[in-house]
Amino acid sequence: VFLVRDELKQVAVKIFPFRLREREGSNAAEMKDRNKKLSHEWTFLQSRINELNHPALVRIRDYFQYEEHDETSEVASYAVLYMDYWPTNLKSWVDQQFSRNRHTKARKFAVLTSLAEQLQRLKDDRNLLVVDLKLGNILVRETGNSALALAITDFGGISRAGSSSVKRVESTVQYLAPELHEDAQWEIDETALVYSFGLIAFYVLEGREVFQDSGSEEPTYLALRKRGPDWNTENAAVEDDLRTIVTRCLAQQREARYATFAELAQSLREARQLRYRGPALYCDLHTAGLAMRM
User: pLDDT tens digits, residue range 211-242?
Assistant: First the structure.
């Protein structure tokens, strides 16, 4: 992804290969499989471009296909996307807030509630799920008066809800729910993605991964099964309500998690209202997203 700008505007340009050049003697079946995986995002984008026009997603300004005429190049075709520019992703933004001592509980509520509502609206409005839900795919922009806007990027990680085409390879293994590790027949649905949300939420609250021992090779879901989330004991009383919600998101059994993003978002709103008993402190991202597109 590149940043392109002039005196008037700046845009993000994403370039990715979607078709490899066939070589003499290459394995046809293997080449077909590789090209199928590479072309997933491009194919999905072309067939669903109108559906992808949604405030929860980074806006695509234009897109086209580029043919590589250099016969020595392994890549035969590239896709080029022109998108709205967003300055940082959620992980980097959280790191900045902690380093500046600005990451208050109100801001944590703001980010998590807004993200849950955004994912709910994408499902309700377009019947789409972000199956590759992770920190690096969530972009952040401050819109003034400390209000925040979020947007999802990586269109290859978006799929229609209930689609049989959803495969485990489309999602980052670290963020997969336990049932997706243990039974390949499970599809990535909202309940599974609530678990991914829980891992993101833990980072938003703590500023680190679920376990301090980042050098361990043990899969995250197995470590959680043995020991539960590794919360910082210093903030236990202050963030008990948020931690209760996140711990439920990270439940090993599907039945113990929130079933949908709507249920999760409602729980976050209720917890926030009990804590502050006032008007919402977070930005309504649906409205903010529409306003930024006008």
Answer: 655 555 667 777 777 777 888 877 666 688 99
d(CA 198, CA 3): 31
Residues near 172 by beta carbon (within 8 Å), at least 6 away in sequence: 132, 134
DSSP label of 59: P
Locate 81 and state its tokens: 């996307």
**CA-to-CA separations, 85 to 3, 27, 94, 161, in angstroms, rounded:** 7, 39, 19, 27
Average pLDDT score over residue span 168-188: 76
Alpha-carbon distance of 116 to 244, in angstroms, equals 16
Q: Whole-model pTM?
A: 0.84
Phi, psi for residue 64 in degrees, rounded to 5 = -160, 170
* Residues in Cβ contact with 183 at an 8 Å cutoff, skipping those fewer than 6 apart: none
Question: What is the percent of the chain where pLDDT is above 70?
Answer: 86
H or E stretch at 248: helix 240-249
- DSSP code, position 87: S
Say yes or no to pLDDT of 42 above 90.
no
Query: In the 8-state DSSP scheme, what is residue 218?
Result: S
CB 39 within 8 A of CB 59: no
Region class of 25: left (phi > 0), else alpha (psi between -120 and 50), else beta: left
Nearest residue to 158 via CA among 127, 180, 136, 185 = 127
Note the pLDDT of residue 255: 95
Q: Which residue has the tokens 């690096």?
A: 136
